[in-house]
Amino acid sequence: MAEALRGSLTSWAVIGIGVIVAAVGWLFITGLWGAGVTGFGLAWIVLGIIDLFRPTVKT
Question: Which pLDDT value is given to residue 3?
């Protein structure tokens, strides 16, 4: 139970960081740097969502 919760919490933390980074890039940084930061944040969001659906491996 704790293992599944920890994995889910990690995924949500990655998604949250991605949202913050994408918002900073979108709102506060202009030009190509802003586009790059926004894309980097969106990549974190996508990877966090993918991680939510990944099956857990029992050792």
Answer: 57
| 2 domain-assigned | no
**Predicted confidence band at 8 (pLDDT cuts at 50, 70, 90)?**
confident
**Domain extent for 47:** 8-53
* Rounded Cα gap, residues 45 and 6, in angstroms: 18
Whether residue 4 contacts residue 53, with contact meaning beta carbons closer than 8 Å, is answered with no
Instruction: Say how far apart CA 16 and CA 14 lie, in whole Å.
Output: 5
pTM for this entry? 0.82
Domain count, the chain: 1
